[in-house]
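Q: I'm teaching a short session on how sequence maps to structure, and I want students to see two examples side by side rather than one. Could you give me a first protein with its sequence written out and its structure tokens following it? Keep the formatting plain so it prints cleanly on a handout.
A: Of course. Example one:
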Amino acid sequence: MSDRSWFFASQGKQQGPYPEARLREFIANRTVTADTLVWTEGMADWQKAGDIPGLLSDAGGPPAVPRPGDPLGSAGGHGGGRLSIEFGIWVFTWRSLVLFIGLLLLIPVPWVIVMYCRWIVTCTRVPQRPNLDFTGRAVDLMWFYAAVILFIAAAWSQSQALNLAVNVVQLVLYWLLIKWFIANLGSNGQPLRLRFSGSFWSFLGWSLLAILSVITIIGWAWVYVAQIRWMCRHIEGTRRDVVFTATGLEFLWRAFVTALPCLLIVPIPWMYRWFTRWLVSQIVLVERTARANA
């Protein structure tokens, strides 16, 4: 049976064919469960994986040996590992243009934001979490749309008090967008039930510190890294800790290398992809038991 190719059903769609070794990986990470319908050559019809003798019971065993440099627990199960992202230049370009035009036209704002979030999430790869997706809806962002109208009204106002209020509201919106984005991450069409627990006042403090750090010329890079680490620490609902491993110096020189060619406009998509690949790869999932014993 080990030489056969297997198919399985997911969200009403046929997946495969996959060699049995690959199928057992799906079983190990729970993409395929006892209730998942599977089929292989020689079977009269689709059957539940749990009804096939030996298929699930033999799926266990020790995880693969970690590669040098991998975080402890990254080889399998619910262990850790680095995130990654991959997207095409032209796909990024046209989607970014659609997002930009949608923001300018105002009315499509909720729809273009959801479109962009869904695309960028599906480009991201998370260890032991296949088929990452985004479940947010445009209707959930109507509050954001109303705030955009407020910003436009404030832009025509000469009132300093109103402008200050708008700046505070803008930070509240960024904080709410982070909470909304994290809460709508899913896998295989099912919500992951994650949440961002960072308080608004902490977010406000980090944002003000980031603004003030600009006067140091280079110190802002260390502040941004510290703020990202704070945000990662407050992602809850997962059995793994989310850790940002980059240093301020790494962030600084990569930011400058990215920004300089972007002055020529044309290299923007390539430099954005280069920087984003590195930034996402600095997010590591670490098994909590591994960190506790470290």
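Q: Perfect. Now a second example for contrast.
A: Example two:
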Amino acid sequence: MITLTKHALKWARSVIKEEEYERYMKHGKDFINDEEIWEKLTKNKNPSPQKVRAILDKSLSLETLEPDETATLLNVKDKDLWDEIFAVAGQIKKKVYDNRIVTFAPLYCSSLCVNNCLYCAFRRDNKVEKRRRLTLEEVKRETEVLAGKIGHKRLIVVYGEHPLSDADYIADTISTIYSVKVKARKGYGQIRRVNVNAAPMSIEKLKRLKEIGIGTYQVFQETYHHQTYRRVHLKGTIKSNYQWRLYSLHRALEAGVDDVAIGALFGLYDWRFEVMGLLYHARDLGERFGIGPHTISFPRLEPAANTPFVQETKYKVSNEDFKKLIAVIRASVPYTGLILTAREPAHIRKEVIPLGITQTDASTKIGIGAYSDGCEQQVEKRQQFLLGDTRSLDEVIRELAQEGYITSFCTAGYRCGRTGECIMRLLKQGKERWFCKVNAVLTFREWLDDFASEQTKRVGEELIKKEIEEIKQQKPSIYPKFMEYYRRIENGERDLYF
């Protein structure tokens, strides 16, 4: 059990700045109206096929849906209509993101936490969890494995909420990660994009992370249902303040962070309500800042050490409903990226990727220090939850290529200024896919040469042939420059992009 010191208690009391979220509220209320959401879910029952198809046509035009429209899709009962929704979800993804899948890995830096969330193994009262925080030298060693042996180019770094993993520690770990460069077979391994999953912060702290080079800032509301939120986030903790968390990404955008990411933990409350909450969140960000979420995540509750709540919840999401919620999110917020994590087993991941997934992790380990310490097994008492898919990045990429998906390691858009309002405009117009197409091929070529097994390389090169031919046919104006870059990468140059 973690005993909170006087310093930690004082720190916890100083974290929340009420004035930084109250100014976004209207008449003291936030933008999630529980009664309104249930009213819309109730009044849009038994929709006609014509109504559903009209909504899907709107989604295909890449327009964000209205709450009543999303509620309509959530009320579909007919299996054939669901098959149409699934098909449209895939078409939207192809239209906006092409056949590209971005891969990343999570890097858990600290399991220390002052909160006491009922569903989480990291909660402060969990006596069986083994706690630790990585030193910067350990962060470096973890990154050397991820970038130098596996070949990842993107990480999402994860931290518990605690004074020992505050904004200064986060900034130091990000700087350490970016500093690592490891010789590979032909080129080198290096992390080019560090996204952050961390507790809500003040605008001042977020500006500090912006300066250090934070990528996307990700905060999950966990559940949008007010009563459930209060029940699972115990009173007196930082996380018990619903609005401080709800408006965390508003503050991030105000602080100048270009890309933000939302999510809900499915299994805490009714999945249809949570989908509606995600839509309301995306719409409010868009209305206030002109920038919606860069990505949306939808993890399901998974078993965790000494966490009986996970077994007791009555809101577990079935595999069939999981497919439905992904497809409806894709249709409701067509421009956003959708993240599928290794919480899900391999067969589920394979089944739902065609529904509009744009990002997934691989070679995932979530024990603190697990990448570099040589532990091949999951250790329940040192990680936040148990994973469903522990396959290597090489295995995942080979399967994706066999299914016709090209793995992209591209981070060019962020460094070319295609972020914030710019990326949102390009995504909503369906124009970003071609930047992504050419850069995906270039970075895939890098990875195949530097890290792939011979079997994966053979499969990947067959896919590259098809991708190059498509670029030649569809984008003849950039084809000569693209091929110049491609040959230079084959000869050992790295990090060339459009």
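Q: What should students look for in example two?
A: Point them to this: The chain has a mean pLDDT of 93. Also worth mentioning: The CA atoms of residues 37 and 276 lie 7 Å apart.
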